[in-house]
Amino acid sequence: MADDELRGNLLFGPFELSSRERVLRRDGVALPLGSRALDILIYLAARPGEVIAKQELIDHVWPDVTVEEGSIRVHVAAIRKALGDGQFGNRYIANIKGRGYSFVGTMVPLGGATEGRNAGSPHQGKLPVRPITMIGRETFVREVSDKLRHDRFVTLLGPGGIGKTTIALAVGRAAAEAFGSEVYFVDLESLTDPNHIAAAVATSLGLALKSKDPGLELLDLIQSRKLLVILDSCEHVIEAVASLAEQLYQQTEAIHVLTTSRELLKVEGEHCCRVLPLDFPPDGSEQTANAVLRYPAVQLFVRRVATRAGSVVLTNKEAPFVAEICRKLDGIPLAIELAAGQVTALGLKNTADLLVFRLELLKLSHRTAVARHRTLKATLDWSYDLLSDAEKIVFRRIAPFVGHFPLDGARSVTGDPGVGAEDIFDAVAGLVEKSLIATRIDAAQAQYRLLNTTRAYALAKLEEHAEVDMVFGRHAAYLAGHLEALREDLLTLPGAERVAAYSDQLSNVRAALEWSFGPHGDAETAMRLAAASTQVFLELSLLLECQAWAERAMASLGDPHRGSRRAMEISASIPLALMHTEGNDQRVRIAFENALEIAIEQGDLRYELRILSGLFTYSHWIMDIRGATDIAVRSKKLALRMGDHDDLALAEAMLAASEHLSGDHLAAQLYCESGLRHLASGPRSRTEVYLFHYTSFLLVGMARCLLYRGLLDQSLDYARRAREEGKRSGNPATFCRSLALVLPVFLTMADLRQSEQYIGELSELSAAHSLMPYRAIATGLKGQLLLLQDNRIEAIQLLKRALEELHVQRHEMLNMDFTCDLALALVGIGEHEQALTLTVNAIEQQQRAGKFLHMPALFRMKGLILAARSAEDHLDAEESLLSAIDWAKRQSATLFELTAATELAALLLKQDRLPEAYQYLSTSLDRLPARISFPARNRAVQMLGQLQSGTEDVG
Questions:
Q1: Beta 23-26 vs 29-30: how paired, if at all?
Q2: Would you say the pTM of this structure is higher than 0.70?
Q3: Looking at residue 927, what DSSP letter applies?
Q4: CB-neighbour burial class of residue 425 (10 A; exposed 0-12, middle 13-18, buried 19+)
Q5: Of residues 129, 122, 127, 164, the one with CA closest to residue 25
């Protein structure tokens, strides 16, 4: 761009640079910038994209003065500060290393001085010149421009406040040069008489119409011209605009038409470009400042706040509030701009909190905006007034739906006697056409949604017509029936797909429950909905919420309903939630037994088995071996009566787990293998409808049985499969259980990297979903990992904390593992007495309770402590280690036999009893297949080699 071209003005982003006035403006306000900085900016802007050497800049700005390069850096820094260079991804001045500087902003030449900005410019024709900054629409503007150039007739379609006018003006400016300034903008907002449409267009073109047929006269006057006509806000005079636009398209060759409307014109030649909301940070995404500023909605919000409050730097602390505001406003630019206006007075958090209240959404205002955009209410009033009576009824009655809903949902809440399904469908279609309902096409059917601001307006209309209780009652009843049907439909789907389906329903479920249990709710509907919604909360692992609603429902349940199926479903959900969030107290057992009693009375075998699976989990967690075995046997009998492979797989999983608790790892493995054969025996009739995920549980069982038996290669394979199956289930509790129970395999392998990764997964997931027992287990596993890394002090702290928490929660599955490692860590710091007391107490406690699974590990640990304490304890240490070996042999726990034999060999070696040491160790090693290398085996092999050579220097 030559220097003389800069006699006019340049527009880039929100800035206008006038070389004649020597001033830089942002949104019409002059910015303080020194003369030298202005000289540099003007010189660079005259040559966009060119790299200007530093010396060339010096020669231009300081022609008669010798200056250092540092002077340029100072002034360029001042320019960048004034431009906000780098904020929101906007770049204007680039430093090309080793070469110089370049202006890299996108600019529009305005021509003329600043006063010309209000009077128009050679490339803008009759377009109004507004200081409008677009964010996130650049690609869309190019797409619309291309379509308009190719197809001649385009409608920008979208709801009020979405930014249609801004985009239309940007398209007009982009097309101005191609049309030789023949671009005309016709604002139809204030036009009330459809007969005046042609006259309004003629006035914009500078023409005076005189005939009685203004449309025909207009065509005669302009049909030979090449021009672009932008018709803005067409929806309230849609028929007349459609007629004129169609004539302009059909009866001319060089006239292009761009319309903005909340509904399509539906005439020949029209091509639709739907204007979507600005992208905003989705719920659950990263909420740092850098992360949220990638989204155009956030960029717009921050920029609008900055225009009112001055320079704004978004912090990580503030970022989640801004993301929440943009989500609540659905990325609607007008709503975002209006909300930004509240921030200087209220602050970000208070503004976000305020938007929870729907009436406050409608009050957001902008004093100087056009009438239909001064408040969100005004914007929606404009659309509502154009609806038919039927559309108005349907519009307000779908207000209870939060998020997406299907057409049958709309029929359920809107229908009245005498109103046919076709009438409702036509009204919904009309609301979609008028951009008041958003749509999403799923695989099976269309889904509809009111944007949050639109829903707030619809709720206000519902209140105006005194229909709130009637319609919310219909909504709750519909949702209860929908969830009941959905549960059956989803039985054959994988867990992740069920989770996705239930996630879609969550907001509606919450809204319906709130109304149903509220002062105007219906008791029968409330109970029905509470029962149906338990599966939603359980599938999504919203256990605290499940418990809260279920307890509320049971508290309001009358005596006649105490033995009903709904009471059974509700009461069965409470103990499952309690187990995962508070622990395994007696309330869990009593609640399961109450639900089981109802299931038996109802004669529902499948639900009886479902509740038994939950009661089994309780017994398994507290290591009630007799109780677990009785439930497993009872479940097997039920499964055989029903003859279903899924039921039999579940029963085999229970039997395997109870045998594992008893210490019979061979029998446990056989049951696991039988369960897996049932799963592979044919098509699944349904997937995991019980209260624990038995597919992953069978894989976990195989991994643990093979671990105890020392078959580490196979154990590792099943551990990986169990983790993947748990993750694939889509259920956080299931995934946590899989991780917790297979992590010992990776720790035994001393796979520190994998162990750390999986412990991190367990810790994060359990914390995110308030799964308290698994949080404690993650703490204990982290302690075991630290011990492997010789960090005994921190390991002791974590292991003690985990044991205390698990004791409170009555969760015993991994307690003895943590106890043994805590004792080992205490020995490592010389606390032999404390370690011995801990171990002896654990042995006595387990023996009293008839729990023998951990006897090999506990006796080994006792022997190790005694051997390390003093030579006087060697005899007792030997006796303990021999007990450990004996227990391990009885359980087919070859891994534990090997570790105990290794400690015994080390002890005998200290007493110069090499032949005995060799005999014990070689026998144990012979029983362990040499398939894979792992630390315990490697140590035993090394020691055996040293014993063979007569070396006493054994580590």
A1: antiparallel
A2: no
A3: T
A4: middle
A5: 129
